[in-house]
Amino acid sequence: MRFFTPLVALVSCCAASASAAVSCTVIAAGAGLDNGPSLLSAVQACPTTIIPVGTTLNISTRLNMTGLSNKEIKLQGTIRFNPNIPYWSGNGFTYPFQTQVTFWQFGGSNLRIDGGGTLDGAGQAWYDAFKKNSSLLRPILLTVYQAQNVVIESINMINSPEWFNFVNEGTGITYNLLNLSAVSTSKNPAKNTDGWDIYRSSSVTITNCNINNGDDCVAFKPNATNILVNNLSCNGSHGISVGSLGQYPGVYDIVENVVASNIRISNAENGARIKAWAGKTVGSGIVKNITFSTFNQTNNQNPVIIDQCYETSASVCTQYPSNVYISDVSFDGMNGTSSKTTVASILCSPDNRCSDVAVNNFNLIPPVKKGAAKYACQNIALTGNAASLFGTCATT
Ligand SMILES: *[C@@H]1O[C@H](CO)[C@@H](O)[C@H](O)[C@H]1NC(C)=O
Ligand SMILES: *[C@@H]1O[C@H](CO)[C@@H](O)[C@H](O)[C@H]1NC(C)=O
Ligand SMILES: *[C@@H]1O[C@H](CO)[C@@H](O)[C@H](O)[C@H]1NC(C)=O
Ligand SMILES: *[C@@H]1O[C@H](CO)[C@@H](O)[C@H](O)[C@H]1NC(C)=O
Ligand SMILES: *[C@@H]1O[C@H](CO)[C@@H](O)[C@H](O)[C@H]1NC(C)=O
Ligand SMILES: *[C@@H]1O[C@H](CO)[C@@H](O)[C@H](O)[C@H]1NC(C)=O
Ligand SMILES: *[C@@H]1O[C@H](CO)[C@@H](O)[C@H](O)[C@H]1NC(C)=O
Ligand SMILES: *[C@@H]1O[C@H](CO)[C@@H](O)[C@H](O)[C@H]1NC(C)=O
Ligand SMILES: *[C@@H]1O[C@H](CO)[C@@H](O)[C@H](O)[C@H]1NC(C)=O
Ligand SMILES: *[C@@H]1O[C@H](CO)[C@@H](O)[C@H](O)[C@H]1NC(C)=O
To answer: Where is the signal peptide (predicted)?
Structure first.
């Protein structure tokens, strides 16, 4: 075992052959110092890097950990990203997709992060700064980028400045037994703190996690395919969301083969959701073979929603229906309470842009003072034992 402490020791350590070291331990270098270079060098040099219990690494420089192979990071202590906003504004890794930026890109093959510790985004400074500057680019906590066979397991992620996890161009990526929580202690909310955004990636599983955040719990973005999400507890989120898709002209978005099951979701804007743009200058794509099953919903505004006229007025949507075609979607076992009267809305664009949407085993109940549950639908012939709740869907 080797200890990576001050930068001087580290440099001499890493100039030597790394083959002898099986595991390296990174401990904090002392108050006021940046531990980013130590962590980066340890991971590059050693198959296993340990951040021990009681250690908080202060990361003040970006972590470019791409192209790794056969690495494990045992995060038993804490990795905290120093909220030096001017530094990160110029130095985060950037991605063109939705103009995202990240503290840490982690990629390669056969990688693991585990250990029971905490990844801390120190988001409060960001939540407050974003209130003053709405164009501030806030970093994603962890981006798994161009990776195969990655397991992120048994850690906590707290106070991400923006999205917690971005899965970008990966395959075989597993997240298991994580707790995510973003809570603002000021009046400025922890905005856009999505749990996961999956983009251009396949074979991704997210299981057995607790999430308390201020935007999508999980979002399936363009070209997320073969995804399993199971046994999550989401609180305060914007839901388990497909999309939004079809936003950018000339871009073709695919989301297919997705299962989201056994989800407990509370105090959310949406429960199970699909959203796609319509309008004159938008993109195109398909959403196919999506299953939402067994959602225990509590106090959610829109427990079940398809919006295929996303951010588009009814008249424009009639003239320019969505070019994202939706088919083979199942909502099965949607139970619990809503905060509004309308408990389910399946609103498709006109011109047969949705097909094979099944609704089964619905038991969604609005607050007593809101009266009986309402169901809304348009431009779709629903199937399944809950279809009768919706009545005949309007044609627009
Ligand atoms: C983290 O490192 C930066 C840069 O060296 C330093 O300014 C800051 O005080 C450190 N923070 C902590 C908590 O040590
Ligand atoms: C990150 O490191 C990889 C090598 O693994 C290099 O190719 C890439 O240019 C680096 N990215 C940045 C933004 O520095
Ligand atoms: C707001 O944030 C943007 C993007 O990070 C930056 O370019 C701009 O200078 C900031 N504006 C102010 C007033 O700080
Ligand atoms: C996540 O939270 C649960 C419930 O509070 C706890 O039992 C579990 O140990 C936490 N996981 C980690 C990695 O700390
Ligand atoms: C669901 O995940 C939690 C951890 O968040 C775990 O304690 C529980 O055993 C899991 N339930 C099932 C049925 O696997
Ligand atoms: C759940 O989310 C609601 C709404 O954001 C919040 O008020 C509440 O504190 C959260 N509960 C927990 C246990 O974090
Ligand atoms: C999604 O995949 C399809 C088929 O490979 C490709 O044509 C399209 O450009 C991809 N879209 C994005 C947003 O990557
Ligand atoms: C639908 O998606 C699920 C989950 O990825 C997959 O297991 C199943 O084979 C897919 N069905 C078809 C017909 O592709
Ligand atoms: C659904 O969630 C509510 C609130 O969290 C809980 O009281 C109830 O036991 C859950 N029901 C099922 C069937 O899991
Ligand atoms: C959900 O509601 C359906 C229909 O009322 C019911 O058959 C099913 O047992 C409920 N499931 C849960 C987990 O509460």
So the answer is: 1-20
Annotated active-site residue in 80, 238, 273, 353: 238
- Residue ranges per domain, the chain? 1-59, 60-390
- Residue 212 CB-density burial (10 A; 0-12 exposed, 13-18 middle, 19+ buried): buried
SS3 11: helix
- Sign of the C-alpha dihedral computed for residues 45, 47, 51 and 57 taken in this order: positive
Cα–Cα distances (Å) from 82 to 30, 61, 145, in that order, read 14, 9, 22
Instruction: Judge contact between 57 and 33, C-beta under 8 A.
Output: no
Q: At what angle do helices 7-15 and 36-45 cross, to 10 degrees?
A: 20
> Which residues, including other chains, have CB under 8 Å from residue 9's CB and lie 6 or more apart?
3
Judge whether residue 1 has pLDDT over 70: no
Structure-token pair, residue 97: 């997709």
Ligand number nearest to the C-alpha of 364: 10
Residue 393 DSSP one-character state: P
Centre of ligand 6 from the C-alpha of residue 235, in Å: 6
Helix (H, G, I), strand (E, B) or coil at 332: strand
Per DSSP, 240 falls in state E
CA distance 191 to 184: 9
Contacts of 314 (CB under 8 A, 6+ apart): 396
Q: For residue 22, name the pLDDT band (cuts at 50, 70, 90).
A: confident
Strand partners, 228: 205, 259
User: Closest ligand 9 atom, CA of 298?
Assistant: 4
Integer-rounded Cα Rg, in Å, for the chain is 22
Distance 210 CA to ligand 4 centre (A): 8
Asked if the 60-390 domain carries CATH number 2.160.20.10, the reply is yes
> Token digits for 44?
């590059």
Look up the pTM and report it. 0.95
